[in-house]
Amino acid sequence: MGLNGGAVLSASGDWEVLQFATATQTGADVYELSDLLRGQAGTEAAAMAGAAVGAPFVLLTPELVRADTALSERGLALTWRAAPSGGPPGGLAMTETSFAWTGIAYRPFSPVHLKAAAQTGGDLLISWVRRGRIGGDGWDTEPPLSEESETYLVEVLSGAATVRQTEVSAPSFLYDAAMQAADFPGGTPDPLSVRVRQGSAVFGWGAAGEAALLY
Predict the structure, then answer these.
(1) In order of start, what are the domains of the chain with their CATH numbers?
(2) pLDDT greater at residue 134 or residue 171
């Protein structure tokens, strides 16, 4: 991620990472950030949840480094302590908190550009574009595969209910006419709601890309 980064605690309890172009001081220790890039580093779900007035905000500077955690510690409630450099990890100058590291950095980003195209015989070809969690900043080629293998979980929705769930190994799914008749006896809705997640051997299913697709 580039410069001018920050993290804000969203209403969902997750941290959103964002960037800003300008910071204008409007009062004592008060700044207005503008021209934001929201939902950076795979935190778009937190961005969609929004943040309350007065939510904690942390400026992300080059001096900050990633904590040395093991994958086996993911999901465990750990105690984190902060003390002055060079001093003991205890005493009156030390503060501590407890929270679980969830390994969001290892979660595949949500697929984007979901679309549906009508095929002969009433079939629908649902396709999407994956995002590169590692080395995906290039504009001249397809994003690199950041996971051990390419796999996706596709869900066809009817309201809040999932009527079909399947796994595929390419960024497309042929939703044929027989499947549609089984899932929607009264006729396939247009638009059709679809949710797609990319898989990771470390994290499991990643963040969801969801859209109502016209065909």
Answers:
(1) 5-105 (no CATH), 112-213 (2.60.40.10)
(2) 171
